[in-house]
From TrEMBL:
PROSITE patterns in the cross-refs: HTH_MARR_1, HTH_MARR_2
Record organism: Streptomyces edwardsiae
Full protein name: MarR family transcriptional regulator
Keywords: DNA-binding, Transcription, Transcription regulation
Upper classification of the organism: Bacteria, Bacillati, Actinomycetota, Actinomycetes, Kitasatosporales
Record domain HTH marR-type: where: 1-128
């Protein structure tokens, strides 16, 4: 009985990985003409939908837990988005180790342009 349960879990896990890979590939293909990948979009989307309290900004550290990237990979991705003029980084004055990140006008506009493409890719791969 335990072997059957284990085999079902293993099969379900592989199904999840297959859907994940297929979905990322679909998003990457849809966003490639805009110079974005799935992870790039996720950062833009989180920043676009984040609603920090008045006067607060989004800390990079807060994004790490919401994305499936290491701290260093996220830092490199944000540096690339900043180089492309899509986000701005600033240091936290209270904690010099902290870094804030926010969308620029260009980043917000690009996010709005590609959002329907990303959502359509999700619908194609995850829709009922």
């Amino acid at each position: 009985m335990a072997a059957k349960t284990e085999a079902r879990l293993e099969e379900r896990w592989r199904e999840i990985l297959t859907v994940h890979a297929r979905t990322l590939g679909e998003i990457d293909r849809a966003l490639h003409p805009y110079g974005l990948g799935a992870s790039d979009f996720e950062v833009l989307d989180l920043l676009a939908t984040a609603t920090p309290r008045d006067g607060e900004q989004c800390r990079v550290q807060n994004l790490v837990g919401r994305l499936h990237l290491s701290q260093s990979a996220l830092s490199r991705l944000i540096a690339r988005l900043e180089k492309d003029g899509l986000v701005e980084r600033s240091l936290c004055l209270e904690d010099r180790r902290g870094v804030y990140v926010r969308l620029t006008g260009k980043g917000r506009a690009l996010h709005g342009e590609v959002l329907p493409l990303q959502r359509a890719a999700l619908a194609r791969t995850l829709g009922e």
